[in-house]
Amino acid sequence: MARSLKKGPYVDQKLLEKMKKAKPGETIKTWSRDCAISPEMVGFIFGVHNGKEFISVKVEESMVGHKLGEFSPTTKFFRHGGKMQRELESKEVQKEAEKVKETAK
């Protein structure tokens, strides 16, 4: 559910203080994934915590209005299983083996 318009977007005050103290090019670590990206954040690099590690997010103008957590996924995609996936993987392995043979000649 969206935040009401009279309240405005949620921006963590501690994060704003860190931004004021930060030097150019420095990564600002934060656990505040629910913080909305405001125009004054453009150009900064944030280390957004995903539960295990910090993911670097460089804020651009197209990200304004989104939340920091949207750019730091919390789950890692492994792969889909099944017969088709195994066939595709075996074809990739064969292509790589052919490239190695060609470069060895």
Summarize the structure.
This protein has 105 residues and is of the alpha+beta class.
Could you explain the architecture of this structure?
The protein has 105 residues and is of the alpha+beta class. It has a domain at 13-79: 30s Ribosomal Protein S19, Chain A (2-Layer Sandwich), CATH 3.30.860. The longest helix is centred in the C-terminal third of the chain and has 22 residues, at 83-104. A 3-stranded mixed sheet has the order 1-2-3, with helices on one face. Strand 2 (45-49) and strand 3 (54-58) form a beta hairpin. The chain contains 2 helices and 3 strands.
Task: Give me the secondary-structure topology.
Elements: H1 13-21, E1 27-30, E2 45-49, E3 54-58, H2 83-104
Main attributes of the structure:
105 residues, 2 helices, three-stranded mixed β-sheet, 30s Ribosomal Protein S19, Chain A, alpha+beta
- Number of helices, where a helix is a run of at least 4 consecutive DSSP H or I residues: 2
Summarize the main sheet.
3 strands, mixed
CATH class of the domain at 13-79: Alpha Beta
CATH architecture verdict of the domain at 13-79: 2-Layer Sandwich
The chain-level mean pLDDT equals: 89
Shape: elongated
Number of strands: 3
**What's the helix-strand series?**
HEEEH
The span between the termini is 62 Å
